[in-house]
Amino acid sequence: MLAGRHVTNGATPGTVTGATLRARLRAADQRLGTRVTLGLVALASAGYFLFVIRFGVNVPFEDEWHMVLLLAKVHHGQLSLPILWAQHNENRMFFAYLLMLVLDRASGFNTKVEMYASAVLLLAAVVVLLQLWRDDRWGSLLWAAPAIMVLLSLAQYAVALQGFALAIYIILVCLPLALWALKLSERGNWWLCLALLLGLIASYSSLQGLALWPAGVVYLVARGRSPKVVAAWSAGGVLTAGIYLIGLNFTQAGGGGVGAVLAAPLAAAHYLALLVGSVIPTDNFLHLGLRWLSLLGVLLLLAALAIFVYWLRSSAASELALPVAVIGFAVTVDVLNTLGRAQYGVSYATSPRYVVFNLWLLAGIWLAVVRIRSHLGAPRLRPVEAAMAAIGVVVLAQVCTSVPAAIGAAHQLHAQRQQAIALVRDYQVAKPALVVRYLYPSVQVFEIRAAELRQMHLSVFASRH
Questions:
Q1: How many structural domains does the chain have?
Q2: What are the tens digits of pLDDT across the range 307-333?
Q3: How far apart are CA 373 and CA 365, in angstroms?
Q4: Is 13 part of any domain?
Q5: What 3-state class would DSSP assign to 91?
Q6: Whole domain around residue 290: which residue ranges?
Q7: CA–CA distance, 465 with 460 (Å, rounded to integer)
Q8: How far is CA 25 from CA 18, 38, 137, 138, in A?
Q9: Distance between first and last Cα of the chain
Q10: Do 387 and 373 touch, CB atoms closer than 8 A?
């Protein structure tokens, strides 16, 4: 009888049951998936940082010349809150300015330091996103690896190699951090306050940060949070957007707005499709032209719409909270971009500086399809697996084409920026045509700012350059 007490479900002592074996195999699979995924993250991150180290150049370019004005204000003790709040194109960049000023003062306005900071913020965003995925406990972490490779893609070389783009990466790190805080807000209102603060920081770093608010609404609704919490978050977004718009000069913003889109809806739709489809670089060895990239954009937007409809009608709403929020964020940014830039033609849609947000759209679509596959039963898997294979092909094409395209473009950018250094040092005799091409569209403003750089011994005039 004593021996019988050690027998469970008919198994003899030391026997491993089928259920136990399957559990151990799943645990081993998850551990292996975690190690492989973290290894891929480390490899992709190392490649990204080496890319910035190799091709980044310490010289102000385009919007970065505005930082010279702010540094001059600091140098003369004239910096004020209205100056930090003043719009730059359509953007309020208060928090981005503060961070860049700290970095620029510490580094002697070395724009490569801003590039490194952007890379750190991107890596932090990826790590937080991975942690959110892992916390939801829906399968192996390895399923998230393709999305991570996309998020660390070198296709974003245009912003990776410009220090002023730090504002974009502030927004990108605020997105998963805010979702994480919203998730933890179930434990207390302090977490909701943190999420609201992150939304504020993102919104007042650049216009695209406003897209964080609808993404947060989707996330809260998907997780089944109370209407009170959803209302509090929504009210924060409305208030933030309202303050953002106070005194905003729409003429200075330069966008066409809703009126321009309504005046040429087909052109705007084409712009939006090409904007999304340009996750595959236009300079790709697959020889995909603008027509094919536009078609790809349409398919990705349809996939995003199908995922959203499935989320609304499915019992798996909480499982899709993370990817649907990421998709909602990216699509909102695309709509804002279309409203502001569609009037300038499709050349703006294919600009590599806009690809970064649609990398998050593609990653979100992949993660959503993975979640849907895990939720559905076997009889309904075939269409989802076909969709998953199709998205997987796009992901593979994106990763494979972005590396050679980015390296080729970066070599050219590096050579141009090296020439720009010489132009800045000899700003008094620099040829206007070269200044406009490599540095800043206004030669007069360039000469004033370059003289200020020399007076403050910053950037190319710094002794430690």
A1: 1
A2: 999 998 887 678 899 999 999 999 999
A3: 12
A4: no
A5: strand
A6: 35-58+110-420
A7: 6
A8: 10, 20, 16, 16
A9: 83
A10: no
